């Protein structure tokens, strides 16, 4: 299995969920995954005070189906998918410029975040990996 580097730009549920699913599949098949979150996707790495569901306004049409699927055990919460990725070796990186624009500090991020690095550094560290932009 090849190693992957995935850049998450959009905060759209389907894009982030599918990107994490790709990463998790690669990890479970023996590959490595480096995950870079920028702009809208940072909402999924922000520390939350409660267990509320994080969805963008553009995803509101699927809120009911998402909640029902989580309750029925067909889909796991995004936070759980992130934890599973981390448990099997994913590395999580965040964009400092996006953090500044969105006024998010490193302390405001979840524990799974490994490092805050610029895009050029992330791409340089991903030289041997296949790069996917989500």
Give the helices and strands, then pairings.
Layout lengths: L3 E5 L4 H16 L4 E5 L25 H9 L6 H10 L3 E4 L1 H6 L11 E4 L2 H7 L4 E4 L1
Parallel strand pairs: 1-2, 1-5, 2-3, 3-4
Describe the model:
By secondary structure, this protein is an alpha/beta fold. The protein has a single domain, classed as DsrEFH-like (Hypothetical Protein Ychn, Chain: A, 3-Layer(aba) Sandwich). The protein is built from five helices and five strands. The chain has a five-stranded parallel β-sheet with strand order 4-3-2-1-5, sandwiched between helices. Helix 1 runs parallel beside helix 3. The two termini are 20 Å apart. The model has no long low-confidence stretch (mean pLDDT 88).
CATH architecture: 3-Layer(aba) Sandwich
Total beta-strand segments: 5
Give the helices and strands as they follow along the chain: EHEHHEHEHE
The order of strands across the largest sheet is: 4-3-2-1-5
Q: Radius of gyration in whole Å, from Cα?
A: 14 Å
Classify the fold: give the CATH topology.
Hypothetical Protein Ychn, Chain: A
What's the mean pLDDT score? 88
What profile does the largest beta sheet have? 5 strands, parallel
Number of structural domains: 1
Indicate the proportion of strand residues.
Answer: 15-25%
- In the predicted model, the low-confidence regions spanning at least 5 consecutive residues are none
- Supply the CATH superfamily name: DsrEFH-like
Query: Helical stretch count?
Result: 5
Structural descriptors:
134 residues; alpha/beta; Hypothetical Protein Ychn, Chain: A; 5 helices; 36% helix
């Amino acid at each position: 299995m090849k190693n992957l580097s995935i850049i998450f730009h959009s905060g759209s549920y389907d894009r982030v969920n599918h990107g994490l699913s790709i990463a998790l599949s690669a990890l479970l098949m023996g590959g490595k995954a480096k995950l870079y979150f920028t702009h809208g996707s940072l909402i999924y790495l922000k520390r939350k005070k409660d267990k509320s569901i994080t969805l963008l306004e553009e995803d509101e049409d699927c809120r009911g189906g998402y909640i029902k699927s989580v309750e029925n055990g067909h889909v796991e919460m995004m936070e759980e998918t992130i934890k599973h990725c981390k448990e099997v070796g994913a590395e999580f990186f965040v964009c400092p410029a996006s953090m500044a624009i969105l006024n998010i500090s490193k302390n405001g991020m979840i524990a799974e975040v490994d490092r805050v690095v610029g895009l050029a550094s992330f791409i340089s560290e991903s030289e041997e990996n296949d790069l996917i932009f989500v």
